[in-house]
Amino acid sequence: MPTSEQPLLTLHQVSLSYHSKLALDKVDLTIHPGEIITVIGPNGAGKSSLAKVALGLIKPDSGTRWAQKNLSIGYMPQKLHIDPSMPLTVERFLWLAGKSTRRQRLAALNKVSAGHLEKRQTGRLSGGETQRVLLARALLRSPQLLVLDEPAQGVDLGGQSELYNLLTLVQQQTGCAILLISHDLHWVLASTNRVICMQGHVCCEGTPDAIRHNEVFTSLFGSSAQAPLALYHHHHDHVHDLDGHQHHEGDTHA
């Protein structure tokens, strides 16, 4: 993980409340170029709030946010609901995301193995297909930083595995930094450089292996921490698409 370079983004002593309820309590975060950070914690731990402050979508009550000038950030939100009756193709949905050419939109879809979805109706996509399209939308900005809020939500276990593989591939191809938000203790990218455990504040942080043995982490998550970080290594002769369907290596599939 490169640490000698200037950070892409830093949060210092950030606090945030909703209706007098503290969501973030003096949280520090530093993201360097090419770094993959996974933020974990139970529901209500402030993970999504942290992502929104990092994105600049929410101004904290106190503390500071600093980002490199003209920092390009791609964002994959937690949910997308589009009425199935709305006539909105995937290509049109990407067009609405901002200025881009059709070639750029198709290239973004192809990066996530979703070129075949270009003319499909967005509201009729499966959970896994929707996540691919959202990731393609985030990549349209050629981001230096990719922020992903619960990217595996609505995707079955086999599809989650493929999604995490895809994210690792995207990071390797583009060199972007990734801030991954998750509540699932059992799915952390094998290539994650740093894990941040939250419960309104930063409980502990470090490498996946260090967090696994951290007493604060164990006390917070109890029995769930017995196998807290299932580092994902995928070694077999078939692959899963994002909907969990199996295909033997070398097969062509849509």
Walkthrough of the structure:
The chain is of the alpha/beta class and 254 residues long. The chain is 27% helix and 24% strand. It has a 6-stranded mixed sheet. Strands 2-1-4 form a 3-stranded antiparallel sheet, with helices on one face. Helix 3 crosses helix 4 (127-139). The chain is globular. The model is unreliable at 230-254 (pLDDT under 50).
Question: How is the CATH topology named?
Answer: Rossmann fold
Number of helices: 7
CATH superfamily: P-loop containing nucleotide triphosphate hydrolases
Low-confidence stretches: 230-254
The count of β-strands is 11
Q: Helix amount, in percent?
A: 25-40%
Question: What gyration radius follows from the Cα positions, in whole Å?
Answer: 18 Å
Record the SSE blueprint:
Elements: E1 9-18, E2 21-31, E3 36-40, H1 47-55, E4 62-67, E5 73-76, H2 90-95, H3 102-111, H4 127-139, E6 145-149, H5 157-174, E7 177-181, E8 194-198, E9 202-206, H6 208-212, H7 215-221, E10 238-240, E11 246-248
Parallel strand pairs: 3-7, 3-8, 5-6, 6-7
Antiparallel strand pairs: 1-2, 1-4, 8-9, 10-11
